[in-house]
Protein backbone atom coordinates (compact mmCIF):
# COMPACT_ATOMS: atom_id res chain seq x y z
CA UNK A 1 0.00 0.00 0.00
CA UNK A 2 2.80 2.40 0.95
CA UNK A 3 4.70 1.32 -2.15
CA UNK A 4 1.78 2.20 -4.40
CA UNK A 5 1.40 5.55 -2.67
CA UNK A 6 5.12 6.27 -3.16
CA UNK A 7 4.94 5.41 -6.85
CA UNK A 8 1.85 7.59 -7.24
CA UNK A 9 3.69 10.50 -5.60
CA UNK A 10 6.65 10.03 -7.91
CA UNK A 11 4.39 9.97 -10.94
CA UNK A 12 2.65 13.10 -9.67
CA UNK A 13 6.00 14.85 -9.18
CA UNK A 14 7.13 13.90 -12.68
CA UNK A 15 3.84 15.09 -14.16
CA UNK A 16 4.08 18.38 -12.27
CA UNK A 17 7.68 18.83 -13.37
CA UNK A 18 6.78 18.08 -16.99
CA UNK A 19 3.88 20.54 -16.81
CA UNK A 20 6.10 23.22 -15.31
CA UNK A 21 8.76 22.75 -17.97
CA UNK A 22 6.13 22.80 -20.72
CA UNK A 23 4.65 26.03 -19.37
CA UNK A 24 8.12 27.55 -19.12
CA UNK A 25 9.06 26.66 -22.67
CA UNK A 26 5.64 27.59 -24.02
CA UNK A 27 5.59 30.95 -22.25
CA UNK A 28 9.09 31.83 -23.40
CA UNK A 29 8.43 30.80 -27.00
CA UNK A 30 5.25 32.90 -27.03
CA UNK A 31 7.18 35.85 -25.65
CA UNK A 32 9.71 35.53 -28.49
CA UNK A 33 7.40 34.65 -31.39
CA UNK A 34 4.30 36.79 -30.77
CA UNK A 35 6.09 40.15 -31.29
CA UNK A 36 7.75 38.85 -34.47
CA UNK A 37 4.52 37.39 -35.85
CA UNK A 38 2.69 40.63 -35.05
CA UNK A 39 4.94 42.45 -37.53
CA UNK A 40 3.67 40.22 -40.34
CA UNK A 41 0.04 40.47 -39.19
CA UNK A 42 0.08 44.28 -39.06
CA UNK A 43 0.98 44.71 -42.72
CA UNK A 44 -0.73 43.11 -45.71
CA UNK A 45 1.26 41.64 -48.61
CA UNK A 46 -0.05 44.37 -50.91
CA UNK A 47 0.99 47.15 -48.54
CA UNK A 48 4.36 45.48 -48.00
CA UNK A 49 5.07 45.32 -51.74
CA UNK A 50 3.87 48.90 -52.21
CA UNK A 51 6.11 50.14 -49.41
CA UNK A 52 9.15 48.53 -51.04
CA UNK A 53 8.93 51.08 -53.87
CA UNK A 54 9.02 54.13 -51.59
CA UNK A 55 12.31 56.06 -51.74
CA UNK A 56 13.03 55.84 -48.01
CA UNK A 57 12.72 52.05 -48.04
CA UNK A 58 14.67 51.61 -51.28
CA UNK A 59 17.48 53.93 -50.22
CA UNK A 60 17.79 52.34 -46.79
CA UNK A 61 17.75 48.81 -48.19
CA UNK A 62 20.41 49.51 -50.84
CA UNK A 63 22.62 51.42 -48.41
CA UNK A 64 22.36 48.77 -45.70
CA UNK A 65 23.18 45.89 -48.02
CA UNK A 66 26.06 47.78 -49.66
CA UNK A 67 27.68 48.89 -46.42
CA UNK A 68 27.17 45.51 -44.74
CA UNK A 69 28.86 43.72 -47.64
CA UNK A 70 31.74 46.22 -47.55
CA UNK A 71 32.01 45.68 -43.80
CA UNK A 72 32.22 41.90 -44.21
CA UNK A 73 34.93 42.18 -46.86
CA UNK A 74 37.04 44.44 -44.64
CA UNK A 75 36.55 42.28 -41.55
CA UNK A 76 37.35 39.04 -43.38
CA UNK A 77 40.46 40.44 -45.07
CA UNK A 78 41.83 41.99 -41.88
CA UNK A 79 40.40 39.58 -39.32
CA UNK A 80 41.47 36.28 -40.89
CA UNK A 81 45.24 36.74 -40.42
CA UNK A 82 44.69 38.19 -36.94
CA UNK A 83 42.57 35.18 -35.99
CA UNK A 84 45.11 32.72 -37.38
CA UNK A 85 48.02 34.36 -35.56
CA UNK A 86 46.10 34.38 -32.27
CA UNK A 87 45.14 30.74 -32.78
CA UNK A 88 48.60 29.45 -33.63
CA UNK A 89 51.18 31.66 -31.94
CA UNK A 90 51.96 32.89 -28.43
CA UNK A 91 53.41 36.39 -28.11
CA UNK A 92 53.79 39.10 -25.53
CA UNK A 93 50.62 41.14 -25.02
CA UNK A 94 48.33 38.56 -26.56
CA UNK A 95 45.83 38.77 -23.69
CA UNK A 96 45.69 42.55 -24.02
CA UNK A 97 45.00 42.30 -27.75
CA UNK A 98 42.28 39.71 -27.15
CA UNK A 99 40.69 42.07 -24.63
CA UNK A 100 40.82 45.00 -27.05
CA UNK A 101 39.23 42.88 -29.76
CA UNK A 102 36.33 42.04 -27.44
CA UNK A 103 35.71 45.62 -26.23
CA UNK A 104 33.24 46.56 -29.03
CA UNK A 105 30.99 43.67 -27.96
CA UNK A 106 30.76 45.01 -24.41
CA UNK A 107 30.59 48.73 -25.18
CA UNK A 108 27.11 50.26 -25.46
CA UNK A 109 26.54 51.21 -29.13
CA UNK A 110 26.15 54.89 -28.27
CA UNK A 111 29.54 54.85 -26.53
CA UNK A 112 31.07 53.13 -29.56
CA UNK A 113 29.65 55.83 -31.85
CA UNK A 114 30.88 58.64 -29.63
CA UNK A 115 34.33 57.06 -29.45
CA UNK A 116 34.50 56.85 -33.25
CA UNK A 117 33.39 60.46 -33.49
CA UNK A 118 36.10 61.58 -31.06
CA UNK A 119 38.67 59.68 -33.11
CA UNK A 120 37.61 60.31 -36.71
CA UNK A 121 35.36 63.37 -36.46
CA UNK A 122 36.44 66.71 -37.89
CA UNK A 123 38.06 67.68 -34.60
CA UNK A 124 38.93 64.15 -33.51
CA UNK A 125 42.37 62.80 -32.68
CA UNK A 126 42.82 61.39 -36.19
CA UNK A 127 40.12 63.31 -38.02
CA UNK A 128 41.68 66.75 -37.50
CA UNK A 129 44.75 65.63 -39.44
CA UNK A 130 42.66 64.06 -42.18
CA UNK A 131 40.75 67.33 -42.48
CA UNK A 132 43.98 69.04 -43.52
CA UNK A 133 43.90 66.91 -46.67
CA UNK A 134 40.19 67.48 -47.22
CA UNK A 135 39.19 64.04 -45.97
CA UNK A 136 35.96 64.00 -43.97
CA UNK A 137 34.75 60.72 -42.47
CA UNK A 138 32.05 61.57 -39.94
CA UNK A 139 28.49 61.79 -41.32
CA UNK A 140 29.43 60.03 -44.56
CA UNK A 141 28.77 56.59 -45.97
CA UNK A 142 32.31 55.65 -45.01
CA UNK A 143 31.42 56.42 -41.41
CA UNK A 144 28.58 53.88 -41.65
CA UNK A 145 31.02 51.20 -42.81
CA UNK A 146 33.55 52.05 -40.09
CA UNK A 147 30.85 51.92 -37.41
CA UNK A 148 29.73 48.53 -38.68
CA UNK A 149 33.30 47.22 -38.79
CA UNK A 150 33.92 48.45 -35.25
CA UNK A 151 30.92 46.73 -33.69
CA UNK A 152 30.83 43.54 -35.77
CA UNK A 153 34.49 42.55 -36.21
CA UNK A 154 34.71 40.64 -32.89
CA UNK A 155 32.00 38.25 -34.08
CA UNK A 156 34.13 37.13 -37.00
CA UNK A 157 37.52 37.21 -35.29
CA UNK A 158 36.35 35.07 -32.37
CA UNK A 159 34.62 32.54 -34.60
CA UNK A 160 37.58 32.40 -36.99
CA UNK A 161 40.03 31.87 -34.16
CA UNK A 162 37.96 29.01 -32.76
CA UNK A 163 37.80 27.47 -36.25
CA UNK A 164 41.58 27.66 -36.72
CA UNK A 165 42.16 26.20 -33.26
CA UNK A 166 39.93 23.25 -34.17
CA UNK A 167 42.12 22.36 -37.17
CA UNK A 168 44.47 19.48 -36.39
CA UNK A 169 48.02 20.86 -36.49
CA UNK A 170 49.31 17.40 -37.40
CA UNK A 171 47.76 17.82 -40.83
CA UNK A 172 49.56 21.12 -41.30
CA UNK A 173 52.85 19.57 -40.15
CA UNK A 174 52.37 16.68 -42.55
CA UNK A 175 51.84 19.09 -45.44
CA UNK A 176 55.04 20.95 -44.58
CA UNK A 177 57.06 17.73 -44.40
CA UNK A 178 55.84 16.95 -47.90
CA UNK A 179 57.34 20.20 -49.13
CA UNK A 180 54.39 22.59 -48.95
CA UNK A 181 55.25 26.18 -48.04
CA UNK A 182 53.48 27.83 -45.07
CA UNK A 183 51.33 29.86 -47.47
CA UNK A 184 50.37 26.79 -49.51
CA UNK A 185 49.64 24.83 -46.33
CA UNK A 186 47.39 27.62 -45.10
CA UNK A 187 45.55 27.86 -48.43
CA UNK A 188 45.21 24.12 -49.16
CA UNK A 189 44.86 22.62 -45.67
CA UNK A 190 43.98 25.13 -42.96
CA UNK A 191 41.48 27.31 -44.81
CA UNK A 192 39.37 24.46 -46.26
CA UNK A 193 39.16 22.74 -42.88
CA UNK A 194 38.18 25.96 -41.11
CA UNK A 195 35.90 27.17 -43.91
CA UNK A 196 32.63 26.27 -42.15
CA UNK A 197 33.45 28.37 -39.10
CA UNK A 198 34.81 31.22 -41.21
CA UNK A 199 31.64 31.36 -43.29
CA UNK A 200 29.49 31.29 -40.16
CA UNK A 201 31.53 34.12 -38.66
CA UNK A 202 31.20 36.16 -41.84
CA UNK A 203 27.43 35.64 -41.93
CA UNK A 204 27.09 36.68 -38.29
CA UNK A 205 29.22 39.75 -39.03
CA UNK A 206 26.91 40.63 -41.92
CA UNK A 207 23.84 40.30 -39.70
CA UNK A 208 25.37 42.40 -36.93
CA UNK A 209 26.41 45.09 -39.40
CA UNK A 210 22.96 45.11 -40.99
CA UNK A 211 21.27 45.68 -37.62
CA UNK A 212 23.66 48.30 -36.26
CA UNK A 213 21.91 51.40 -34.93
CA UNK A 214 23.54 53.24 -32.00
CA UNK A 215 27.10 53.65 -33.27
CA UNK A 216 25.84 54.55 -36.75
CA UNK A 217 23.49 57.32 -35.67
CA UNK A 218 26.14 58.81 -33.35
CA UNK A 219 29.02 58.71 -35.84
CA UNK A 220 27.35 58.82 -39.26
CA UNK A 221 24.07 60.58 -38.59
CA UNK A 222 20.70 59.81 -40.17
CA UNK A 223 20.80 61.22 -43.71
CA UNK A 224 18.54 59.47 -46.24
CA UNK A 225 20.45 57.94 -49.12
CA UNK A 226 23.79 58.66 -47.47
CA UNK A 227 23.89 57.28 -43.93
CA UNK A 228 20.32 56.16 -43.19
CA UNK A 229 20.46 52.38 -42.90
CA UNK A 230 17.41 50.19 -42.36
CA UNK A 231 17.40 50.37 -38.53
CA UNK A 232 17.66 54.18 -38.73
CA UNK A 233 14.93 54.32 -41.36
CA UNK A 234 12.66 52.21 -39.14
CA UNK A 235 13.19 54.67 -36.30
CA UNK A 236 12.51 57.66 -38.55
CA UNK A 237 9.53 56.37 -40.56
CA UNK A 238 7.77 54.95 -37.50
CA UNK A 239 6.82 58.51 -36.58
CA UNK A 240 5.12 59.29 -39.89
CA UNK A 241 4.89 56.25 -42.18
CA UNK A 242 4.20 53.12 -40.16
CA UNK A 243 3.81 50.95 -43.27
CA UNK A 244 7.34 51.77 -44.45
CA UNK A 245 8.66 51.08 -40.96
CA UNK A 246 6.89 47.72 -40.86
CA UNK A 247 8.14 46.81 -44.33
CA UNK A 248 11.74 47.44 -43.30
CA UNK A 249 11.24 45.54 -40.07
CA UNK A 250 9.81 42.54 -41.94
CA UNK A 251 12.79 42.57 -44.31
CA UNK A 252 15.20 42.53 -41.38
CA UNK A 253 13.29 39.68 -39.73
CA UNK A 254 13.45 37.63 -42.93
CA UNK A 255 17.17 38.31 -43.28
CA UNK A 256 17.76 37.43 -39.63
CA UNK A 257 15.90 34.15 -40.04
CA UNK A 258 17.92 33.39 -43.15
CA UNK A 259 21.16 34.18 -41.32
CA UNK A 260 20.35 31.86 -38.43
CA UNK A 261 19.32 29.08 -40.81
CA UNK A 262 22.45 29.55 -42.90
CA UNK A 263 24.78 29.52 -39.90
CA UNK A 264 23.23 26.36 -38.49
CA UNK A 265 23.36 24.62 -41.86
CA UNK A 266 27.00 25.61 -42.36
CA UNK A 267 28.03 24.48 -38.88
CA UNK A 268 26.15 21.21 -39.31
CA UNK A 269 27.92 20.52 -42.59
CA UNK A 270 31.23 21.39 -40.98
CA UNK A 271 30.61 18.97 -38.12
CA UNK A 272 29.64 16.23 -40.57
CA UNK A 273 32.79 16.84 -42.60
UniProtKB/TrEMBL annotation:
MF terms in GO: ABC-type sulfate transporter activity; molybdate ion transmembrane transporter activity
Domain called ABC transmembrane type-1: residue spans: 61-261
Membrane topology: Multi-pass membrane protein
InterPro entries membership: MetI-like, MetI-like_sf, ModB_ABC, NifC_ABC_porter, Sulph_transpt2
Transmembrane regions listed in the UniProt entry: 15-41, 61-84, 105-125, 137-157, 186-207, 246-267
UniProt KW Membrane keyword: yes
Pfam families per UniProt: BPD_transp_1 (PF00528)
Subcellular location(s) per record: Cell membrane; Membrane
Keywords of the record: Membrane, Molybdenum, Sulfate transport, Transmembrane, Transmembrane helix, Transport
Gene Ontology CC, one term: plasma membrane
Family note: Belongs to the binding-protein-dependent transport system permease family.
Protein's recorded name: ABC transporter permease
Organism: Methanogenium organophilum
Amino acid sequence: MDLNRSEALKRGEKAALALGISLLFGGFLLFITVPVISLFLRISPETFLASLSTPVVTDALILSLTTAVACVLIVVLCGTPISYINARFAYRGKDIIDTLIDIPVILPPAVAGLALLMAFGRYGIVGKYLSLFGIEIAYTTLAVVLAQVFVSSPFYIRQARASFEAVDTNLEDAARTLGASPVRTFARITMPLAAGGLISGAVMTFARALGEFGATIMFAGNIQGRTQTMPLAIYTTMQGDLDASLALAVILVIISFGVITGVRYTLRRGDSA
